[in-house]
Write a structure and sequence with these properties.
Layout: H1 2-38, H2 45-65, H3 68-88, H4 97-113, H5 117-132, H6 134-143, H7 146-162, H8 179-203, H9 205-219, H10 221-234, H11 239-264, H12 269-293, H13 309-333, H14 338-346, H15 350-362, H16 367-393, H17 395-426
């Protein structure tokens, strides 16, 4: 047994050293390329490999000998890094990136020596990525303005400081308002706008807007539409590009809803497929057509930072009013008010009504009625987004997205009303 124990420890040590060598070589290859160009760096691929291996060995020795070998090795490496920095500082350029990378590589090697292979390798990949993106990161930092930095601070305060302090309890008539939920909507709207702005600055206006539309639609297509409309008002020349982002957000909302329904109530999926699938098909076809036709170039258009709380707060207030109307319709109309309540709820937010219908279907709600209600909710949401695009974004955005959203709304309502019963007739009777 002792021999088997020593064999196991030996195997573990060998794997630790191999992982340390691998991660050190990965980081060292990037530094070697930089070394060949600068001809001043004190460490290349071999040195970084040995630094990681040193960390791995001290990590292995930490179990039988304690932290003394680790501290001695780290101290010796720090001296070498300091000497290398002193030598490089005598030249024209001053930088500590390679020295810091060496210390981080040693730490990753220690992780490998402690058998934390996955964190060590993941850290090596991240370090290599950061070192490789030097020009891109410097370009992004160079493009930041004082307003951009202030926007980051304001958004961080809204999302990380204020949000945890907002009460998370129901208030108002029928306890329909939850301040935490409403403030989350404010954060979401602001975040969608800010993420889109960052994407635009990172990859360029046309690709950034389409990407932010897709990503925003995964969170809230309504919030993304408001964001795109606000951005169009600031940059009317990008109306066609923002229209693509708006339609992309509305289209991607459809599969997101199907996933939510599938998680909560899988048996409702066939009934939801008709209205949601019809709207998705319309939005995808027209969105691709608009994307092919839009030809604006945005490289010379100055975009201002989009972080504004006023539109987000107005939208949150509207959400609170709609939530109260939905609950009133449910209380006063009962089961017969499901369609009306669903349409009202779908105006500003689709996820809540979709999950609510899925839960009610679990409790005995007719799935055909639930499918029709989903169609009405999707239609109402499309009409509301069309109104937002036209009134906030102006004629340039409105004339491009209004036909698509109106046609998708009609398709969702019609498919829900007539398509859902037809699908129900094809399904086997419930056991």
């Amino acid at each position: 047994p002792a021999r088997n124990g020593r064999s196991t420890m030996s195997d573990s040590a060998i794997w630790s050293m191999l992982v340390a060598i691998l991660l050190g070589a990965l980081i060292g290859l990037e530094r070697e390329r930089k070394r060949e160009r600068a001809a001043t760096l004190f460490a290349g691929v071999r040195t970084f490999t040995l630094i990681a291996l040193l960390g791995g060995v001290t990590g292995i020795l930490a179990d039988p000998l304690g932290v003394a070998p680790l501290l001695l090795a780290f101290g010796a490496l720090s001296v070498l890094v300091s000497l290398g920095y002193w030598r490089e500082s005598a030249g024209d350029k001053l930088g500590a990136t390679t020295g810091v990378a060496a210390l981080v590589t040693f730490g990753l090697g220690v992780l490998a020596g402690l058998d934390a292979y996955v964190p060590a390798l993941a850290g090596a990949v991240l370090v290599t990525g950061v070192l490789s993106l030097r020009e891109e990161l410097h370009g992004l930092a160079g493009g930041l303005t004082r307003d951009d930095l202030l926007a980051v601070v304001r958004f961080s305060a809204v999302s990380l400081v204020v949000l945890p302090l907002v009460p998370d309890e129901p208030l108002g008539p029928w306890e329909v308002w939850n301040p935490r939920t409403i403030w989350l909507l404010v954060v979401l709207i602001s975040g969608v706008s800010f993420a889109g702005y960052v994407a635009i600055k990172w990859v360029g206006a046309q690709r950034g807007i389409g990407l932010s539309g897709l990503l925003g639609g995964l969170a809230s297509s309504t919030a993304t539409t408001l964001s795109m409309a606000e951005r169009t008002r600031d940059a009317p020349a990008l109306a066609a590009t923002f229209a693509v982002g708006t339609l992309a957000a509305s289209a991607v909302a459809a599969p997101r809803l199907l996933v939510l329904i599938g998680v909560v109530r899988p048996s409702l999926l066939p009934y939801a497929l008709a209205p949601i699938g019809a709207a998705f098909a319309v939005l995808t076809v027209i969105g691709l057509w608009v994307a092919r036709r839009q030809g604006e170039t945005a490289s010379d258009i100055a975009l201002t930072n989009p972080f504004e709380l006023r539109p987000a707060l107005q939208f949150a207030a509207l959400f609170a009013v709609i939530a109260l109307l939905v609950r009133a319709a449910q209380e006063w109309l009962g089961t017969s008010g499901v369609l009306a309540a669903s349409a009202l709820a779908g105006i500003t937010q689709l996820d809540a009504i979709a999950l609510s219908l899925a839960e009610r279907a679990r409790g005995g709600l007719d799935p055909v009625l639930a499918g029709r209600a989903l169609g009405f909710a999707f239609a109402a949401n499309g009409l509301f987004k069309a109104l937002l695009a036209w009134t906030v974004g102006g004629l340039g955005l409105g004339r491009r997205v209004l036909p698509a959203l109106l046609l998708a709304a009609v398709a969702a309502a019609a498919a829900g009303w007539w398509g859902t019963p037809w699908i129900a007739s094809l399904l086997p009777p419930a056991p």
